[in-house]
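dumping these here so i dont lose them again. two proteins, back to back, each one seq then structure tokens. dont judge the mess
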Amino acid sequence: MGIDRLAALAAEPSVREVSWTERDVLLYQLGIGAGADPVDPAELRWVYEKNISVLPTFAVVAGQGVSAGEIAPPGMTLPGIDIDLRKILHGGQSLTMHGPIPASGSALLSSRVADVWDKGKAAVIVLEQAAADVDGSPLWTSEMQIWARGEGGFGGPAGPETSAVAPDRAPDKVLRSQTTARQALVYRLSGDMNPLHADPDFAAHAGFDRPILHGLASYGVVCKAVVDGILGGDTAAVQTFSARFAGSIYPGEAIETSVWRENNRLILHSVCPDRDGQAVLTHAHMEIR
């Protein structure tokens, strides 16, 4: 086992076609808590196919849900990287939108290892995915930061240092998102079938009191809160959205997101008020159009 950074970076991207339907979009948006008030037009537009709006964060699951057929178990195969999957954590996620995501469609998805950082006791693998429509027009680019415990020390660069310092003033707005007890069971149908989010015994062996909500579900919850609460429901206003996953929440707990606006940049910090303000998303920011 180990990491060959040069081999990982030199490998040709893998390209595959993905497709999705309105049903996938509706299921994803139910899984991040949309439709809590099913007679509120602002909520209904996320979960009813008539005049449906598609959240930018749907990009992270496009092509993985029920319309993809049988959903594969969690796993990761990357060139130049041979590591124990039990040691990996999803450390962070970023998304750049190049255009709106249609409610149904297909795309060519190109995946590659964009970088590998040596953090000493761990490695960080940056996995980039770029999607384009059938005409070649770019739709989105995402970057997943995968934290691999015990895989550092291979002599690579440490990677960039980023700060998580919020402005020295009160937030411009605090947004509260309430999750539901069965939310992880719905969200997992969008592609992430890891038993950590459904099986109490599996969660207990991993050190949790009960199954936890997916990190990418929290990412989507916060995006929706900002689109609804700051951007007036305008999904096209989101240009980029980046965050680190700092802590887990249990389904049924709330997420509170503090928002500071600095011109076309929103600085975000999300916590779980049900557990004394434990951080959920940090180093989070959104560029808006």
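---- next one ----
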Amino acid sequence: MSQPTPADAGHAPVVVSNVVGSFAWGVLHDRHPALIERVRQATAYPVEQQHALDALLREIAEGGVVEALDDTEPDAAQWRQWGEGHIGRRWADVPFLWAESYFYRKLLAALGYFTPGPWKGIDPFAPFKRAELMGATLDAELAALDEIPRLPAAQRDTTLLHASLWGNRADLGFQLSAGDSGLGERATGLVVDDTAAFWNLLDGRRPGKVCLVADNAGPELLPDLVLADHLLTTDRASSVSLHIKPYPYYVSDATTSDVLDCLARMSAASGQASEIGERLRQAVSGGRLVLRSHPFACAPLPYLDMPAGLGEDFASATLTVMKGDLNYRRLVGDRHWPATTPFSRVTAYFPGPVAALRTLKSDVITGLAPHTRAELETTGSAWRTSGTHALVQVRT
């Protein structure tokens, strides 16, 4: 599905990682080496994988050059095509979105994820995901769902939408969102709030399909699933297509096994959490909650370049909901947009109504009101990357 580049994209440079001290520089320079060591410590990989991790560390070291995937990797040809003009250059000098994605693909290659043998299909991030999902605080968070049915309908809508939004900050948010004061405390961090437009788009019409493009697993995926259940039980959606990753991507991105783990976690709880878990299991069995894992979900490209089949899926939806920071970067383009660039303009190519639920964790931002931008920029804080601010943006 080939779409024209937004007219003003030429005036918004692509984000790269060669500015020392920038967020993108910090990811490649600090976070990726630290992640390799974290993966190494979490799982007892054998010598071959250990050596491959050492080689990847050397490759991504400061000033390191991007090396091609081995031809034995199943998608090596596809990555050569995606990497045209990037292979052989410094990691810091290629587009940040591409470099970050390629790092994770090379990490899987180093660990033999796609290689026939005993380590094939072993998720290197599973230990982190399991630890988060089984955390002691999660029981209290899930228990807070028992308060949701007591809320007025409009507040219930806002609470569950904002719980999904703030789940991107790694806590569920049911407890803080269940009361008026807590919700107000969260809402002060919203730099754009199209919550009313979100629900207006779904109300007063025959329910149709909603596409929910997930981001992280564990404590973030749980409120996404609760939101999906709410859409189904309130007849805002006849079905929900939950788009997940076909294989591990970034640190904790959701895959099919993560969805199943979350459903099991809720079903094993009590009260509302258990009821929601059971309803969602039935929705999967009955075809009202459909899991999708298109290969493009792991592509190092913006949604502007999505293939026709995926575009048709989104076009057939009443609404597509994009969760999280990476999906936002892919939706608007990973560029240094002026912060007041209209969200509707940079998403005009998208084949249907789209909403972004995102906690801010990278530099890219669009759609701010001028006075909001001015207020944020006078704070001196890292509001674009700290995860303390969020947005709900809707383009009808």
